[in-house]
Amino acid sequence: MLINCIKCGSKATITSRKDLDPKLSQLYCACKNTDCGHTFVMDLSFKHTICPPATDRRALLLGLINTMPTTERNELLKQLATS
């Protein structure tokens, strides 16, 4: 992955990465422009989820189904079997 050097605007490469947290990393970067040669550190952070992973949706559904009264759960399972 290439990013822009904040000093000259040329492309810079990520030379290494230090994970501080599952949602935060420090990226060590070097500008590819030999006249610039700037090396710097940038932060990469997680902002928010756009679409949750399928595993999260399954866990949510199972949790909801398991809290339903047995009669309602059985009725739902019958409806799902016929659809």
Name a few traits of the molecule.
rod-shaped, 2 domains, four-stranded antiparallel β-sheet, single chain
Write a concise synopsis of the structure shown.
With 83 residues, this protein is of the alpha+beta class. It is built from two helices and four strands. It has two domains: 44 residues; 35 residues, no CATH class.
Mean pLDDT, rounded to whole units?
A: 93
Query: Any idea what the shape is?
Result: rod-shaped
- Sheet with the most strands, sense and barrel status: 4 strands, antiparallel
Q: Please list the strands of the largest sheet in the order they lie side by side.
A: 1-2-3-4
Bin the helical content: 25-40%
Distance between the termini: 46 Å
Radius of gyration: 24 Å
Helix-and-strand structural type:
alpha+beta
Kindly give the count of domains: 2
Strand segment count = 4
| Relative strand content | 25-35%
- Sequence stretches where pLDDT stays below 50 over 5 or more residues: none
Order of SSEs, N→C?
EEEEHH
> How many helical elements?
2
Question: How does this model look, in words?
Answer:
This protein has 83 residues and is α+β, with helices and mostly antiparallel strands. The protein has two domains: 2-45; 49-83, no CATH class. Helices cover 33% and strands 35% of the residues. It has helices at 54-67, 70-82; strands at residues 2-4, 11-21, 24-31, 39-45. Strands 1-2-3-4 form a four-stranded antiparallel β-sheet, with no helix packed on it. A hairpin with a 2-residue loop joins strand 2 and strand 3. The mean pLDDT is 93.
